[in-house]
Design a protein that fits this description.
single chain, globular, 2 strands, two-stranded antiparallel ribbon, mainly alpha
Amino acid sequence: MGTLTPFSYRTGNFLLFKMDVRCKIICICFLTIVAVNADYLHLCLISAVLSWLLYRCNFNILRFLKEIKYFLLLLIFVFIVRGFTTPGVPLYIPIFEFMDKFKLMGKDIVDIITYININILPYSHITKEGFIDGGKVAWRFFIIIIMGILFSSSTTSSSLKDSVMWFLKPIPFVPEKRAGVMVSLFVRFLPLILEKTLEVSDAQKSRCAHLQKNPVKKIKNLTVPLLIKVFDSADKLAVAMASRCYNDNRTEITENTFLRSGYENQFYAGTAALALIILFL
């Protein structure tokens, strides 16, 4: 209980925590569009910037990767599917001259790689184009996940709700207050789901459920109680809001929501410079 997840809000002195939420939303939307069309060199550049932001936000990289392991499994699945479904030239493992100097279990590494290239890869339907495209797609999704985590961990629910209302207020026939509440609840339910997952996982480990070898049963034993806990929490939240007569006509206090940190213009300039580098590099 009380464990911070990657999506949980945390306090900090870095400028990302003090910045106007509207500025963060605009920059994230712009960078997401750029990242979707980025190539490998551009993805390396964006990843370097995001890694620096994670470091400044006091994220432990190794622990961070461990906590998002389920997202990484999803990305690996996407990578494999793209590798098998993209048409192109069958994948071929290059053989380098320095491999002749190494031995593995009494066999030459070159012979092993040659055997794989001749007898396995041509019949596996894995293509070179699929290998490249799958890595690119998985990397893009990973960058979008990182941006979402940085935004969620540095933004409070109230400021996110007020910023959504500010963006949607000029649009006619759109209930901006209801939309703001829905978006803020959706973002704040992500760490709750992760916390419930850890609770269920710890409870099952205490009952030696982790010794189960059947992957289908393991997924079932984790998913069913997790869904029950999540829907139960959502039901309690709905009852609590209804018991307090929560509605769209309540008075909103937004005086301190959009306080500017003074770094918004620099952040806009940095985002624009990064986008221009990616577009014209």
